[in-house]
Amino acid sequence: MAQVVAPPMTRRTAGIIADGAFKVLLTVVFIAGAGPLGRLLGVSAWLMVVSGLALLIGGGIEIRYVRRRPMRTYTRLMVAYDSGWVLAALAGLLMAWQGSSAGGEVWIGYQTVAPVVFTALLVAATSTQTTSDARAEDPAR
């Protein structure tokens, strides 16, 4: 009987798992500190909790699909997510520096919407197939 050996964990795979774990950790911070953190950012506690739950779903799916989706798909989605995160943080800071109280809402709003979009795109992405899977599905081979 042939022994199935999992492919070794690459740096990219470890990075994806770390990114997902960070989102899960951020969930704990958002939910545990919803009141004080929400006041500091100028958002309601319920939005902090909802944002935390969105991050939990996003991080969990990110970890769960790490070997089921191509690295290229992950890389593109993570670059887009992180680019949006930086832009939302900069927009929030700019608003705060101008005296607006909406900067925290912009940042937390992004933290609520982006993980859901990331998750939907990741789940919808084409699955990774092994060579034997591709042969089984293509009778012409």
Give a written overview of the molecule.
With 141 residues, the protein is mainly α. Helix content is 75%, strand content 0%. The protein contains six helices and no strands. The longest helix is centred in the middle third of the chain and has 27 residues, at 71-97. The radius of gyration is 19 Å and the shape is elongated. The two termini are 25 Å apart. The model is unreliable at 130-141 (pLDDT under 50).
Q: Count of helices? A: 6
Helix content: over 70%
**Low-confidence residue ranges:** 130-141
The percent range for strand residues is under 5%
Task: Give the tags.
single chain, 141 residues, mainly alpha, elongated, disordered C terminus
Summarize the structure.
With 141 residues, this protein is mostly helical. It contains six helices and no strands. The C terminus is likely disordered.
What is the strand and helix layout of this fold?
Elements: H1 11-32, H2 34-41, H3 45-64, H4 71-97, H5 103-124, H6 131-137
Helix pairs in contact: 1-2, 1-3, 2-3, 3-5, 4-5
